[in-house]
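Sample intake sheet
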Amino acid sequence: MAQTANGGPQRAVDSGHRARREEQILEAAMQLFAEHGYSDTDTQLLADKLQVGKGTLYRYFRSKRELFLAAADRVMRLMRQSIEERIKGIDEPFERLGVGIRAYLGFFAEHPEYVELLIQERAQFKDRKKPTYFAHRDTNIKPWQALYRSLIEIGRIRNIPVERITDVVGNLLYGTMCTNYFTHQRPAVEAQARDILDIVFHGILSDSERRGLDSKTRSDT
């Protein structure tokens, strides 16, 4: 491709090459960090795996710390992409929620090494104000809050703060992901998602019990 006067096309080619190389480095780094741990992963091992010199790695990532945190960030980017691909084109809100929850659980069930990276980050980098997982969750929660808000407006769910809903659901999913990992379970994602959806959206009370509690609440007020 010819270079223009301002170097635009050449820069585009260079940028694309750099992005692809970064992804290759991060993919290999994610596997090594998950297998050996942050402390025991030498960047020389990564360079050997990629068949490049260590200097090449440091042209992309200035330190092992920066490389590790970029790998953790990539976990969350891949998770978000996986969920967005699955929910694309689904307009019915509760179906969208259900598919999103299944996609989340399925992503980490298929990639337990990604959970390992997130756990290592919490252990190794206590100086960080907010771990990568929660930084991404805070950044990407707005569309889900908007969805819950729309359901409140049309009377399909109770009028409660959407932040409360997303906190509870988000913490439940995070806890489930961690539990699956620590117990070395390969969960039946469909059954697990179905149970979560049933308990969250239908609760555990019978209709008669719920009516009784509603009546007692009204009498107390």
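Comment: The chain has a mean pLDDT of 90. The radius of gyration is 22 Å.
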